[in-house]
Amino acid sequence: MRPLFPPLLVRNIIIKSRTSQQFSRFFSSDEISSRDLVFKCFISKSMDPWTNIAFEEWLFKDTNPQEIILFLWRNNSCAVIGRNQNPWKECNVRLLQKHDIPLIRRKSGGGTVFHDIGNTNYTLIMPRIDFTRKHTAELVVRALTTRLDIPAYVTERHDIAVNGLKVSGSAFKLVMRRAYHHGTMLIDTDLDRIKRYLNVERQNLITKGVESFPSPVTNLCNYSSTVSHESFCEAVKDYFTEYYRDYVNHGSNKSATTVDEEFISNIPKVAEYREEFKTWEWVYGQTPDFTHKFEKEFEWSHVKALFESKNGIITAITLTPSNIKYHNLINALEDSFEGRKYGDEKDIDNALNDVRVSEQLSGSNIGGTSISTSEMQRVVNDIGKWIKESS
Amino acid sequence: MFLRSFNVFRVCFHILHVLNQNFQYFSHRLVNNKRTKCNSIFIKLPTNPYLKKFNPTYYVRDLHTSYPNNAVVPFLLADIGEGITECEVVQWFIQPGDNISEFDKICEVQSDKASVEITSRYTGVIKKLHYNVGEMAKVGNPIVDIETDSSNELESSLINSEVSPPSPSAQVQSINITEPLISGEKTHTLATPAVRRVAREHNIDISNIKGTGKNGRITKENILNYVAAGKEAQPSKEIVEDKLVPLSFIQKSMFKTMSRSLKIPHFGYSDEYILDDIIASRNLINDYITRNNQFSFNKISFMPIFIKSFSVALKKFPILNACVIDDDDANTAKLKFRRSHNIGIAMDTPGGLVVPNIKNVQAKSIFEIASDIRRLQEAREKNAIPPNDFQEGTITLSNIGNIGGTSLSPVIVSSEVCIAAIGKLQKVPRFEDVKDEVTGQLVEKVVGKHVIPVSFSADHRVIDGATVARFSQEWKNLLENPILLSAELR
């Protein structure tokens, strides 16, 4: 929905005209306008990614839709994928697990980002009828340009860039009465780490869902010596408070509410959302359908694998060895893998164990072709290791 | 002073802005002109404290229109803004058979960066989901079908009489008897218990019968007439109520192809052909057929002769058998000249218009063409024309003469550049120079001639009027002088 007359223009008139003194004699109004909009600002002291994203969800779902909310937060290292993305395609899941870096799926759309404490996130929540992408991005840019002297601008994809390099990516979510725009802001992030964790070569993984749109990035600290998480929060908070000053509750003393563990512990819903964001069903189970092909030359045979997955579970797997001798063993492995969680090391181990056990019971003789136990073990181990590496 | 009027101006502008937003949000319903249930329209006035005098609270106006009883309403995917035309369905929150109320979540769709929850505008039961998870849903197309409640009907029937186009009698009637105008199984029909018993005995639903008694009462005669009419098995095509009927398969296909054909600039050309000689020739051919039993048909119509002579004339004007390729831009457009004349004939089937074609007419004799037509007609009766016959047509000949018509304006098939349509053969008076028996001189007399009107439409991007005119003259020549057809034999 494109407003006929951008509210920005209307606002400029208010800021420029100095008629408030003159007209307050005729019409006095100290109370909030009759549309009942209220502007609130929250700054988070917590750096736990789950907590922050759960709190953002609470702000979006469980507060009054007439509130315009600005929420500023930052996380310890974590990778965040979009609502409808494939984690195995977007980031190096194995490496993230190895380094104990959380993987989070957010509820808005868009691409994959990597957070660390050099990256500040902002969320702007407002009634749906007032929402346009360009407007919200524009406000953040003005905060940067007017208060921090950074020459930022809004790109055509509604991202924020400086000097041709992206500093902020954004995503949106719209429900019936409300919408939000949230984005990252690279202040002083380790860009190499981003590359390392988000760089994945999976050409043979074909998936539905949204793919990320990689662009070259830069840090804000390259353009200003005074910028930091604190100064960025301060600048954005001041700019927005000024912009929405008609809706600010002048009664309260503080301009922004500090959100810390104590504050959050008083809201049980946040803990609920936090648990939901952590479940396997949400993070991996919401993956759209995909197929993954890979092959390898073993000493004993050349094997091709084709995985099909729905909701993160392997629905079908086809292993094609070039050597028929292992055909039956391979079939048993296929059956065992079906229904397991994709990419889950424990499940893969379980699948392999099942096959080993059934083999030993049947005396390594499935369907006639006899294979020695050691051979069977070798094949099963090789395949297990290979699948763990590739998926 | 100036500032105050300026602020008033801003208020007006703001109202327009909000109305524009509302219009965009509900516009698909207004445009579609269906009788649908709207949300309330919220008119928000600006929040400027200077204008507190003009600043009421939310101003809400409820708009109710009604829709037919128990209708299955397709719920269209509304414009989600930012110029997005399609988005992926990520999650369904409901299943077919679920009850749903207004404002309940239906599904979540995702465009490039935005994840949008779609909420229902209707209350009812979900009938059908149009997309699976992972498919791309198009904005403006239906995403679910909802069977709406009938209970909404009666309460808004009084308001309905304002909203629907009023005619004086209808309005008077609507005040007295609202029900018969809005029909449905649950409406209250006027009939005495005796009449109802008769209806029950005959196993008729009494609400289907139109009453002719006092105040619209259904009488015994009405029922008996209805039964008699039913026995004659005459399906009444009369519309008793407004109905929402989706397009049939053939209609849909016609819709699509004709929408495509729209982009071709058509020009028309009409002429009259005198067919006396052809009629005589055809009679000779039919005699020959009845004498020799080697054919699958007993006689031929004019169509095989028309088609063959059409093809012979087409040899001299190959451009009419071409098609335009890459026609998005004049610089890339090309003409593909096609060797074979696959002439399409428009056929009227019970399901609608279909256009199968006869392949390679240039290499077939009139008899072969006639047997092809016979085969297509038989297939048409069984609704079993093979898809191959619909493909690769190069030019079309449409004969509406058996139904009637003189001046026609056919629409070119989108993969062709020309179409011809033939009207009804009629005997009309014409002037002719006839040799007078007595004087031996040529005298102008009025004679009766069998005349058939022919109309052409051609693609004016690649064909000019003169080409079509010359082609028509050539075809006319062949038809008016059938011996020339044999002169073209190889």
CATH homologous superfamily label of the domain at 268-488 in chain B: Chloramphenicol acetyltransferase-like domain
CATH fold category name of the largest domain in chain A: BirA Bifunctional Protein, domain 2
Number of helices of chain B: 12
Can you tell me the residue ranges of chain B where pLDDT is under 50 for at least 5 consecutive residues? 28-43, 54-60, 64-68, 151-187
Structural class determined from secondary elements of chain A: alpha+beta
Global morphology of chain A: elongated
Count helical runs of chain A: 14
What's the domain count of chain A? Answer: 2
InterPro entries (chain B): 2-oxoA_DH_lipoyl-BS (IPR003016), 2-oxoacid_DH_actylTfrase (IPR001078), 2-oxoacid_DH_E2_comp (IPR050743), Biotin_lipoyl (IPR000089), CAT-like_dom_sf (IPR023213), E3-bd_dom_sf (IPR036625), PSBD (IPR004167), Single_hybrid_motif (IPR011053)
Domain Lipoyl-binding (chain B): 72-147
Domain Peripheral subunit-binding (PSBD) (chain B): 190-227
Family (chain B): Belongs to the 2-oxoacid dehydrogenase family.
Please tell me about this protein's structure.
The complex is a heterodimer of chains A (391) and B (490). Helix content of chain A is 37%, strand content 24%. With 391 residues, chain A is an alpha+beta fold. In chain A, strands 10-11-6-2-1-13 form a six-stranded mixed beta sheet, with helices on both faces. A four-stranded antiparallel beta sheet of chain A has the order 12-14-15-16. Chain B is of the alpha+beta class and 490 residues long. Among the domains of chain B are: 71-148, OB fold (Dihydrolipoamide Acetyltransferase, E2P); 268-488, 2-Layer Sandwich (Chloramphenicol Acetyltransferase), CATH 3.30.559. In chain B, strand 12 and strand 13 form a beta hairpin. Mean pLDDT of chain B is 77; it is low at 28-43, 54-60, 64-68 and 151-187. The chains are: A alpha+beta (391), B alpha+beta (490). Chains A and B meet through helix 1, helix 2 and strand 10 of A and helix 1 and strand 7 of B.
